[in-house]
Amino acid sequence: QVQLVESGGGLVQAGGSLRLSCAASKLPFSTYVIGWFRQAPGKEREPVASITWTGSSTSYADSVKGRFTISRDNAKNTVYLQMNSLKPEDTAVYYCAARHTLLTNYNYWGQGTQVTVSS
Question: pLDDT class for 41, splitting at 50, 70, 90?
Answer without folding.
Answer: very high
